[in-house]
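To whoever is covering the structure queue this week,

Two jobs came back overnight. Logging them here so there's a record in the thread.

Job A:
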Amino acid sequence: MTGHDPWVEYRNKHKQIDDDSKRQIEKVKLKGIAPMLPDGAEQTKNVALIGIRNVMKKCFRANPEERPTAGEIVKELQDRVEYIEENWDIITGIKRTKIAPVGKT
């Protein structure tokens, strides 16, 4: 209404950051280096995060032929969810112990 764009300063300020980020990404892509994972991602014991991390790493492969398809990603994540539901208490995060039937070891 007033002809004033309140976001122009914000966009101009962040455009430089975006341009710098794009240049960094291009450098990394050209060298075939995978993006860094967040702190703690490699050491996590969280079974859900391990599944996500593993799929991410497969997607970072330099050779496109070695990367999983969307269907393979979905399947792997669905399998991880089923594994978690069958073997872990979702509320406590504690692995369920399976008790062998009496007389069978």
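Job B:
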Amino acid sequence: MAEIYVKNQLNDGLEIEFCVGDKEYRLEHNEEVTIDVEDGSCMYFDIAAPKKGKRTNYDRLKNLTIEEMAKAMMCPNELSICTEEIECNTLGGVSCVQCCLERLKREVDCD
């Protein structure tokens, strides 16, 4: 017999459902479990999905992928609070979404 340790470290608001052998588990954000596993047991992760029930728009925004966030962002060149010079590449065939994605991936100093 062996033990496996599972912890949900996905973004807050996402839960995971899985089964080991004939037992089913559901873990919310930061929940953890240690499971005794017998030889030959199968483990199956079913879903990583938002918790059921109502959430705020802020909760939805926190769980966006980087690609979804780039689509939702305003063009960096149109932001009056933008502190960096960003050359507009739309004439070079680069869309605002691609530009936003590149900006999100750019490392910055957090002083």
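Note for Job B: The two ends are 50 Å apart (CA to CA).

Please reply-all if you pick these up so we don't duplicate work.
Q.
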